[in-house]
Amino acid sequence: MMNKLNILTFPDPRLRKKASPITVFDNTLKKFAEDMLFTMYESKGIGLAATQVDFHQRLIVIDVSDEQNEPYFLINPSYVVLDETIEHFKEGCLSIPTFFEDIYRPKKIELTYQDLKGKKKVEIFEGIFSVCVQHEIDHLEGKLMVDYLSPLKRDRIRNKLERKKDDKKTN
Q1: pTM
Q2: For residue 155, is it within any domain?
């Protein structure tokens, strides 16, 4: 049975917490990762970092396939930039619902991570997968998509989201 987890939304201070490395690879981790994937699919996302569901360990789930049948479980992920060329994509974020912004990121990365069994893997990515990985690793570092925007734009988004929260409370 899959559980849908609660996704924290900006400006929740828990989104700023840095994630710790994962050292235990067991069924509890596997179950939690599967719940994260289920939550991501249910929320129509392509990536979710554990930080976003208030679990402060280095775990990310990603699936950029159209059919949502190519999930990646990235544990203790890190990357190096292989191509300094900057690309920009309209990025969205499940923790910043309804907002899509142009974010500029390096084009090509070499990703090192562990799978659910703890096996180390190294892969090269570019395009949407590369963007998604960089976005989700930012979450593990306590960094958000809005940090790439001007303070004015960031404040405007914060105010709109806080108003939405207040509207939900009063309705």
Answers
A1: 0.92
A2: yes
